[in-house]
Amino acid sequence: MDNQLEIELNPTEILKKEFKSKMRGYDPEEVDGYLDLVIKDYQTYQENIDRLTADNTRLFNKVEELNRQLSASDGVKEVKPQQASAATNYDILKRLSNLERHVFGAKLSDQNGAAQTRVQNHSQFD
């Protein structure tokens, strides 16, 4: 990450740090005990930073992947409606034609039959 602060110490450096002893200095065992606590906290923070950095990277990659899928699907959406509407229109016209044939077919057959009969009857009289 570009905006991450540089960490100067790591848990190993803290563990290896040795202090000079002076006559009225701090109790070395107490200092070591406190530094052990600091090391544990440092390790916990570093593990959290590593986990969060990995999660952040994974999520950025996921966003990029989803954006690529979205842009690809936008291209498909532009093409699909035209094809789908053409197929839908064709299906509707085909169904309408079948329905007309079914409903009006019997009437047209009856009318055509009656007209042919009239034409035949008319031609017989001529």
From TrEMBL:
InterPro entries recorded: Cell_cycle_GpsB, DivIVA_domain, DivIVA_fam
Record has Cell cycle as a keyword: yes
Superkingdom in the source lineage: Bacteria
Subcellular location: Cytoplasm
GO biological process per UniProt: cell division; regulation of cell shape
Principal location class: cytoplasm
Keywords for the protein's UniProt record, in alphabetical order: Cell cycle, Cell division, Cell shape, Coiled coil, Cytoplasm
Coiled-coil intervals: 35-69
GO cellular component: cytoplasm
Keyword Coiled coil found: yes
Function: Divisome component that associates with the complex late in its assembly, after the Z-ring is formed, and is dependent on DivIC and PBP2B for its recruitment to the divisome. Together with EzrA, is a key component of the system that regulates PBP1 localization during cell cycle progression. Its main role could be the removal of PBP1 from the cell pole after pole maturation is completed. Also contributes to the recruitment of PBP1 to the division complex. Not essential for septum formation.
Family: Belongs to the GpsB family.
Subunit relationships: Forms polymers through the coiled coil domains. Interacts with PBP1, MreC and EzrA.
Protein name: Cell cycle protein GpsB
Gene label: gpsB
